[in-house]
Design goal:
The protein is mainly α. 75% of the residues lie in helices and 0% in strands.
Length: 84
């Protein structure tokens, strides 16, 4: 029982460290981009996409797919053709 509690505590400690890292990263992005919520959201989306697809630069087709995904963040399908 004690070993299980200690193992669980180690897992909790690791999660807390990861949350601290993420919080720090968010703070850095916010500091760099200031009050521009759109830019902060875009950067977070791009980073999330790259983290989810670690091999995004492995070949031309995968890079193109990543570029298309990032493009969709900037120009969502509902904005295509919007002339404003």
């Amino acid at each position: 029982m004690r070993e299980a509690v200690e193992e669980t505590q180690k897992e909790v400690d690791e999660i807390e460290r990861e949350v601290e890292k993420a919080t720090t990263a968010i703070g850095i992005v916010d500091a760099l981009l200031g009050d521009n919520e759109t830019s902060r959201t875009l950067i977070r989306q791009i980073v999330s996409e790259m983290m989810s697809n670690a091999d995004w630069d492995s070949n031309r087709a995968v890079r193109k797919a990543m570029a298309d995904r990032i493009h969709s963040f900037i120009y969502p399908p509902e904005f295509v053709g919007d002339e404003q």
